[in-house]
Recover the amino acids of this structure.
């Protein structure tokens, strides 16, 4: 449990942590690349460690040095059990990657992962020659390859993570593949994957996010990749500056395709001052007004934006609640429950959260084993009238192990 004292004055500089989304994509591609590939500025969060463990189980040799990890594809899979920890991306992405081998695998995990749906895998796998079994649409998942090229439909209404795995695996098949995409959400994440693969000289054709053509008989070549800064984690730091004083964050790419780069649009709508340089950006507190924002393509921004809305005059509305049902917790319910405890008026209306607040108070709250809920509750301590106690705060290690250290570095008053 963390204790955070209220009335913090926020001011400081911090470097954004590495992107776990890009780290996991790089690990999967490295596994399928002959020779050695080097990942610079690697992420060490729990999801990244789980992905490295899966890569080892699939035959990769992994060594780490000063701010780098070297991954070599040297052998055959060593285990049929692939433990993905609590990472939904690892499970949904590595399932197609593992199906390249003509072997049986079980992909499993712990905690919230067993409640993350995988029903979207069944039809594509069977169309592409892979046997598939799940527990009524939830993990653990059992598969048996080998994966083949061909045509199929992919339901991307819940997540594009399985689609990411198919994009990584299918270029290695002998024949071409065509994927018809149904109800795509999280479009930026699909584009992140496609850009990363295109930078590795993989040919993929995307017809308006409705149909993707993947040329067969392609191959990966050894590469060095510097993992870019994580806009998802940095969004909490930027909001801290907007509501508490001033924060300067370095290590973020303004041209990144990461969905959560949209945090800058939301901050601008609220009236925060944003100053951008080539190597850093600064967010400074001004009079904050209510805002409306659609999070359908960037659902991970819901928690920091709820914290932002609690410091704005008037009623803010954040759309896209349906995307929150299948995260580490039911995030809409968790946000409503915990921020209500702290004095916010937050309610569900259709596919939106409506938030009004005349000031947050202290109290004991629960992170619901959800890293982004824990970080949002930490932001609630800024300007709160009393101390906030966050039960289960250690769950931030899933994506941002150093969050509370960085929060303290910019002025947050953190105690054990």
């Amino acid at each position: 449990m963390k204790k955070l004292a209220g009335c913090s004055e926020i001011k400081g500089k911090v470097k954004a942590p590495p992107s776990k989304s890009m780290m996991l994509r790089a690990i999967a591609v490295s596994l399928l690349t002959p020779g050695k590939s080097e990942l610079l500025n690697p992420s060490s969060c729990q999801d990244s460690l789980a992905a490295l463990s899966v890569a080892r189980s699939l035959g990769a040799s992994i060594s780490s040095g000063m701010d780098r990890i070297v991954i070599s594809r040297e052998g055959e899979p060593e285990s049929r059990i692939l433990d993905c920890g609590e990472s939904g991306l690892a499970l949904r992405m590595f399932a197609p990657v593992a199906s390249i081998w003509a072997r049986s695998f079980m992909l499993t995990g712990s905690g919230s992962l067993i409640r993350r749906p995988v029903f979207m895998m069944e039809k594509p796998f069977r169309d592409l020659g892979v046997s598939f079994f799940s527990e009524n649409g939830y993990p653990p998942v059992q598969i048996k390859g080998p994966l083949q090229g061909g045509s199929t439909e992919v339901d991307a209404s819940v997540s594009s993570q399985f689609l990411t795995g198919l994009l990584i695996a299918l270029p290695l098949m002998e024949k071409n593949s065509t994927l018809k995409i149904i109800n795509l959400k999280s479009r930026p994440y699909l584009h992140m994957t496609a850009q990363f693969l295109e930078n590795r000289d993989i040919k993929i054709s995307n017809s308006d996010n409705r149909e993707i053509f993947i040329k067969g008989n392609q191959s990966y070549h050894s590469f060095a990749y510097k993992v870019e800064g994580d806009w998802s984690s940095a969004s909490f730091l930027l909001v801290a500056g907007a509501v508490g004083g001033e924060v300067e964050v370095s290590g973020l790419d303004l041209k990144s395709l990461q969905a959560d780069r949209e945090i800058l649009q939301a901050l601008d709508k609220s009236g925060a001052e944003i100053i951008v340089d080539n190597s850093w950006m600064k967010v400074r507190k001004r009079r904050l007004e209510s805002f409306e924002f659609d999070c359908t393509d960037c659902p991970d921004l819901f928690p920091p934006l709820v914290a932002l809305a609690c410091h704005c005059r008037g009623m803010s509305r954040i759309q896209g609640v349906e995307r929150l049902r299948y995260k580490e917790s039911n995030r809409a319910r968790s946000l409503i429950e915990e921020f209500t405890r702290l004095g916010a008026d937050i309610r569900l209306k259709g596919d939106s959260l409506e938030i009004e607040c005349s000031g947050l108070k202290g109290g004991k709250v629960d992170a619901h084993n959800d890293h982004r809920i824990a970080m949002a509750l930490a932001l609630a301590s800024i300007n709160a009238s009393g101390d906030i106690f966050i039960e289960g705060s250690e769950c931030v290690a899933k994506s941002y192990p150093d969050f509370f250290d960085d929060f303290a570095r910019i002025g947050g008053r953190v105690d054990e």
Remarks:
- The two ends are 6 Å apart (CA to CA).
- The chain has a mean pLDDT of 94.
